Amino acid sequence: MKRVLLPLLVISLLLSGPAASQQTAKKEMSEQDLIAKAKKIHAEVITLDTHDDINTANFTAEKNYTQKLETQVDLPKMKEGGLDVAWFIVYTGQGALTEEGYEKAYANAIDKFDAIDRLVNEYAPDKIELARTSDDVRRIVKKGKLVAMIGVENAYPMGTDLGNVKKFWERGARYMSLAHNGHSQFSDSNTGERSGEYLHNGLSDLGKQAVAEMNKWGIMVDISHPSKEAIRQMIELSKAPVIASHSSARALADHPRNLDDEQLAWIKKNGGVVQAVALDSYVNPAKVEKRDKLSREILEEFAKKEGMKIYSSREEVMKLPEAERNDYIQKFIEIQRKARPVIDERLKDTAPAVNVSDFVDHIDYLVKKIGIDHVGISSDFDGGGGIEGWNDASETFNVTLELVRRGYTKEQIKKIWSGNLLRVLDEVQKVAKQLQKAK
């Protein structure tokens, strides 16, 4: 018995000495090689995020994106994380379908167009430039500058004047959704799934005309917020590929804002692209529910110190008037930032946060379901988005790192980060030129 134990003891001692150190070093070197490979790829591909909300209070001469703000996106964070292209969002919450409502919504949209214009033309023309085409994107990136692009979330501000499609296009809009949370004059919203109430049974006649106008002027049709029937009709009517600017796979996260397998098949056939979104409740709602329940008490402790009430759901927040909602979101982000170390420490074992790995699970699913040519990336930063590992633009590299870990090649990562979306933009603009010539 002793003769058996002695060799085992010697082996144990050896493995705990230099041999073990060599094995550990080998693992560390392997990890270092993987990180080095990911960094090289990240530096060489164009990284593009299709959904970054903005608050025009952060677009003034005194306070703007040239500074490192409390926002999830600003120019220093984009540089730090290697995020080349940010689609800044002209978002308007759904209001009354009246002339007064349309007028107020239009003013809100123009205020956001103007804010983006100030950033690229007054505050930071040497750092960031507005792109309107894929060629613009490549040209600007080659110059070493950051890229701004514009998406319109909710066509409600257009009122009933389809001439506004061209006006928004002239301001730089390159995608637009016909609805948000609540039915618009153009389209039913996905929110009808829960309420069981719809206004148009998909698209209104005006909405169908709006799809044609967007095709004519080269604005990508964004299907992320409309109802399933409205999405089906948009894809059927559109003469160009569509995009889902910030939606994930419903098979992995059963939320009305995500796309089911039937919808994914429609998009693949249409030639469009799904921009998987890093918003935790659209990525892994079960994880979110558990963590929210356990972390709410901690957040409320911090909020109480700030004299702030925390709403129980994102839907409640989105119903607030825009100025009040923006103020709430900024305060909530600050409270989250202060509370995060405490929450992470207390819940690290019992309720881990939704993370980059969970997010890339959606990318994996989409790639397997509809193919590498139809998948992209979005964050929904400053609009509710953000996950552990990609909680602001400075952490963008972590997404590339996870893709490399899973065996994606440089060419595949290039497609996912920007190639697919820019390919759709090219096709949409090609169709627009054809339609304009036909008139």
Structural account:
The protein is α/β, with parallel strands linked by helices. It has two domains: 46-284 and 354-438, TIM Barrel (Alpha-Beta Barrel), CATH 3.20.20.140; 285-351, no CATH class. It contains 17 helices and nine strands. It has helices at residues 2-15, 18-44, 75-81, 99-123, 134-142, 163-170, 192-195, 205-217, 228-237, 261-270, 280-283, 285-306, 314-318, 322-347, 356-370, 397-405, 410-438, and strands at 48-53, 85-91, 128-130, 146-153, 173-177, 220-222, 243-244, 273-277, 375-378. Helix 8 packs across helix 17 and helix 9 (228-237) packs parallel to helix 10 (261-270). The protein is globular and about 60 Å long. The chain starts with a helix and ends with a helix. The model is unreliable at 1-26 (pLDDT under 50).
Taking the alpha carbons of the first and last residues, their distance comes to 95 Å
Structural class based on helices, strands and sheet pairing: alpha/beta
Oligomer: single chain
Overall shape: it is globular
Strand content: 5-15%
Query: What is the number of helical segments per DSSP (H or I, 4+ residues)?
Result: 17
Q: Topology as H/E string?
A: HHEHEHEHEHEHHEHEHEHHHHHEHH
Cα-atom Rg, whole angstroms?
Answer: 23 Å
Average pLDDT level = 92
Number of strand segments: 9
Helix fraction, binned, reads: 40-55%
* Number of domain units: 2
CATH class type of the largest domain: Alpha Beta
Tell me the CATH superfamily of the largest domain.
Answer: Metal-dependent hydrolases
What's the story with the biggest beta sheet?
6 strands, parallel
> The CATH topology of the largest domain is what?
TIM Barrel
The CATH architecture of the largest domain would be Alpha-Beta Barrel
- Uncertain segments of ≥5 residues (pLDDT<50)? 1-26
